[in-house]
Amino acid sequence: MKFDDKGLAERCADAEREAILADPGFGLHFTDHMAHARWTPDKGWHDDAIVPHAPLTLSPASAVLHYAQEVFEGLKAYRRADGSVWLFRPEKNGERFQRSAQRLGLPELDVDDFIASIEALIRADAAWVPTPHDGGEESLYIRPFMFASEPFLGVRAAHEVDYYVIGSPAGAYFASGVAPVSIWITKTYSRAGAGGTGAAKCGGNYASSLIAQQEAAENGCSQVLFADAGSKQHAEELGGMNVFFLDADDRLVTPPLSDSILHGVTRSSVLQVAADLGMETVERPIVLDEVLQEIRDGRIREAFACGTAAVITPIGVFKSDAGEFHVGDDAGERTLQLRNHLLDIQYGRAEDTHGWTRQVC
């Protein structure tokens, strides 16, 4: 697929766009265009193009509105000091998009076509990719998604599917910047279970996390950490991020991947960057009561969450029905080292020894 732009005009005036880029926030503003393609059983993927960013028209009977058959991705485009624009490991997002689609009974999109759609949108809306201010983290957040658009109320995989890619200029995900956040540990609610959709990036997983997020807010926390749905004893992940702990022996520990944990691209990158920096990395089940006791005893030196939107966010305190467990009031040395090194690769300030980055324009 080529995703031609057909010479479309811009929707936003230069002055309006520049005002937005000066303070974009996160997920508040959108670029002029979007990529679109449609799938049907007889034609496969077709009608691919770059089109104006505009509201969608759907039948009230569209299957996605009734059975939540949809998946999405999230990645970023980074403007470097020389003005060029780059992606970071987009093939990994494309591969996960395929796995998510397969799990939700949706048609798989070829990874090359996935990347082509993103690159076409970025080239059409290159003016929307922010230039980082004074070492900031501004970027263009990219959101590919597909959903069952067939107007049909029978319970089966849809025979009409629409795919879109939209772009949104983004600043830091957390307004507090790199300051440590507080995490509520819920054993009341579960994000996903064995055999479910936890490893797929689908809206239902996020919808099911929102009530637990409310529980976290009621307890003065900004995010929630979920235990496994079975025993309620093991740490899994936050609502939209993976979690890491640094122990007293300088080992970076994180729960192992499973069908109830999202296979984070940032998670994978953190493990590799940590190894590059000479750290031992360990993927093993983490018993919540044990890790909380280790925090209380000072055997856990640092903790952080990671994901595309927030990159790496230090954790200062965990709270649960058992009390408060303080890791630290400041971002840890290793947390910042990992965060800065990963950002330096993404923005081209450090050598990319793994071939992770890809120039778009």
Automatic annotation (TrEMBL):
| MF terms in GO | L-isoleucine-2-oxoglutarate transaminase activity; L-leucine-2-oxoglutarate transaminase activity; L-valine-2-oxoglutarate transaminase activity
Matching CDD domains = BCAT_beta_family
Provide an example Pfam family for this protein.
Answer: Aminotran_4
Catalytic activity reported? L-valine + 2-oxoglutarate = 3-methyl-2-oxobutanoate + L-glutamate; L-isoleucine + 2-oxoglutarate = (S)-3-methyl-2-oxopentanoate + L-glutamate; L-leucine + 2-oxoglutarate = 4-methyl-2-oxopentanoate + L-glutamate
Q: Which SUPFAM superfamilies match?
A: D-aminoacid aminotransferase-like PLP-dependent enzymes
Can you supply a Gene Ontology BP term from the record? isoleucine biosynthetic process
Identify the metabolic or biological route this protein is part of. Amino-acid biosynthesis; L-isoleucine biosynthesis; L-isoleucine from 2-oxobutanoate: step 4/4; Amino-acid biosynthesis; L-valine biosynthesis; L-valine from pyruvate: step 4/4; Amino-acid biosynthesis; L-leucine biosynthesis; L-leucine from 3-methyl-2-oxobutanoate: step 4/4
Q: Could you say which EC number(s) this protein's record lists?
A: 2.6.1.42
| Keyword Amino-acid biosynthesis tagged | yes
Q: Which family does it belong to?
A: Belongs to the class-IV pyridoxal-phosphate-dependent aminotransferase family.
NCBIfam families membership: ilvE_II (TIGR01123), PRK13357.1 (NF009897)
Protein name as annotated: Branched-chain-amino-acid aminotransferase
